[in-house]
Write a structure and sequence with these properties.
Protein name: Aldehyde dehydrogenase 1
Distance between the termini: 78 Å
Helix content: 25-40%
Radius of gyration: 24 Å
Catalytic activity: octanal + NADP(+) + H2O = octanoate + NADPH + 2 H(+)
Family: Belongs to the aldehyde dehydrogenase family.
Bound molecules: adenosine-5'-diphosphate
GO molecular function, one term: aldehyde dehydrogenase [NAD(P)+] activity
Keywords: NAD, Oxidoreductase
Number of helices: 15
Strand order of the largest sheet: 14-17-18-13-12-20-21
Number of strands: 24
Length: 499
């Protein structure tokens, strides 16, 4: 069965915590208020470090630095190739410091170390490299207008970007926003999540080493209603790119509407379906359902917590899944045998447990898990519910924890209807060998990404972002670069043209 979380007893190399202050205009500084907050080890609940707590005053200083760097600094004005060169150096530095960054990120967010190295730190560097290559490929169009006029478009950096990021993939989220913003020539104020500020501060230090000019990247750790809200409502922030919960996405949009109507891009929650057809390879289907729900302890906006099984495969799937879960290990993420670490903090831990409770009370059956585990820290057993009905809370609301709900369907039409029966539209998975079924599903599901016979397949070159109440605007890919660029049309008269 699942081993209990053993609360930090694994002997390990601890990272040194070097950067704990706000990063404004190229320097680490205390908060104006002098306040600090604590970031905790989710394995134990113990304090890792005290971090300077930024609020409105600090955001004002950071925006001022970013404004100055944008209006008068080199960054937006240098050739794109030069920005790309600095970004490539930045990526090299992230890789050179991968070991320390991996420890820091694993500790702050409770992630298995091996996975963090490849997924979190690895894709951070890839994202920088991808956008480094895009920095000198920003083109406009030429416009042949009426006979008296001609025009062209310029794609200019939007200005000062506010980047507000969550705690589930702190490093990836940092670079999926910072990298395209840098390539576009924007300057920025980044607010990491209060649960996980450590990697962002380290990245601020590396940016300076790489040669990113002072004021281009400012990092303000702090809380949402203070520091985050100050960014969203700031009159001198030109756009906001946010990843987080749907309710906070709504607040960000309201703050924009009430202040300067800055464009916002919102990557929000999800309740993604994974749809498994009778002809699916059952081992593949089981693997995908496990990673889609238990990877990163279910703390993933694309988690497929609605698993729909066609009737003919249901029993075989459930049997295999129960067997496979016997070798799934929950425990200290610094232990190399461990698959699943602790939830990020007490609040999330309690939220997830309350959803599990709802599931039980509303009549779903617990196939595996269903309880917290470990003597301390925020460990939860990977939980699979069967007999889940469409109207149960666990089938409708985002859980953001290791909880999988199994449901049945009969026909392709029914699968489409169920997949779309949600306010969200972030991701979906389809498992089938039938290309016609796959094509029907991929074209009918309203979501930002549909994975066929895979899940969680992400890449710097693959647009990421949802529809409906999962938000709008894309991270990754050239679409992400676009949101940091403003299109300007330039028109001149043309006299005596023969054409
Ligand atoms: P979660 O509920 O999963 O913690 P949130 O959406 O609350 O997700 O958090 C995502 C990010 O949004 C964090 O950096 C958080 O501090 C920030 N945030 C929370 N509330 C606000 C707010 N009112 N305005 C701006 N940012 C906020």
């Amino acid at each position: 069965g699942t081993e209990n979380g053993n609360g930090g007893s694994v002997s390990m190399e601890m990272p040194e915590i070097r950067y704990t202050k706000l990063f404004i205009n190229g320097a680490f500084v205390d908060a104006v208020s002098g306040k600090t907050f604590e970031t905790r080890d989710p394995r134990t609940g113990d304090v890792i470090a005290s971090i300077a707590e930024g609020d409105k005053k600090d955001v004002d200083l950071a925006v001022k630095a970013a404004r100055e760097a944008f209006d008068h600094g080199k960054w937006p004005r240098m050739p794109g190739s030069e920005r790309g060169r600095i970004m490539t150096k930045y990526a090299d530095l992230v890789e050179q410091h991968a070991k320390e960054l991996t420890l820091l990120e694993s500790l702050d967010a409770g992630k298995p170390r091996m996975v963090t190295r490849v997924v979190d730190i690895g894709s951070s560097a890839s994202s920088l490299r991808y956008f480094a290559g895009a920095a000198d490929k920003i083109h406009g169009e030429t416009l042949k207008m009426s006979s008296q006029f001609q025009g062209h478009t310029l794609r200019e950096p939007m200005g000062v970007a506010g980047l507000i990021i969550p705690w589930n993939f702190p490093a990836i989220m940092f670079f999926c926003k910072v990298a395209p913003a840098l390539a576009a020539g924007c300057t920025m104020v980044v607010k990491p999540a209060e649960q996980t500020p450590l990697s962002a501060l380290y990245f601020a230090h590396l940016a300076k080493q790489a040669g990113v000019p002072d004021g281009v990247i400012n990092v303000i750790p702090g809380f949402g209603p203070t520091a985050g809200a100050a960014i969203a409502s700031h009159m001198d922030v030109d756009m906001v790119s946010f990843t987080g919960s749907t309710p906070v996405g709504r607040l960000i949009m309201e703050a924009s509407a009430r202040s300067n109507l800055k464009p916002v891009s919102l990557e929000l929650g999800g309740k993604s379906p994974l749809i498994i057809f009778d002809d699916a390879d059952v081992d593949l289907a089981v693997d995908l359902s496990i990673s889609a729900n238990f990877f990163n302890k279910g703390e993933a906006c694309v988690a497929a917590s609605r698993v729909y099984l066609q009737e003919g495969i249901y029993d075989r799937f459930v049997k295999k899944l129960a067997e496979r879960m016997e070798s799934w290990v929950v425990g200290d993420p610094f232990d190399p045998r461990v698959n699943q670490g602790p939830q990020v903090d007490k609040e999330q831990y309690e939220r997830v447990l309350s959803y599990i409770d709802h599931g039980k009370r509303e009549g779903a059956t617990v196939l595996t898990g269903g309880k917290p585990c470990g003597e301390r820290g925020y460990y939860i057993e990977p939980t699979v519910f069967t007999d889940v009905k469409d109207d149960m809370t666990i089938a409708k609301e985002e859980i953001f924890g290791p909880v999988m709900c199994l449901m049945k369907f009969r026909t392709v039409e029914e699968a489409i209807a169920k997949a779309n029966d949600t306010r969200y539209g972030l991701a979906a998975g389809v498992v089938t060998k039938d290309i016609d079924v796959a094509n029907r599903m991929t074209r009918s599901i309203r979501a930002g990404v549909v994975w066929v016979n895979c899940y969680f397949a992400m890449d710097a070159d693959c647009p990421f972002g949802g529809r409906k109440m999962s938000g709008f605007g894309k991270d990754a890919s050239m679409h992400a670069l676009d949101k940091f660029l403003a299109v300007k049309a330039v028109v001149t008269p043309v006299y005596d043209s023969p054409w």
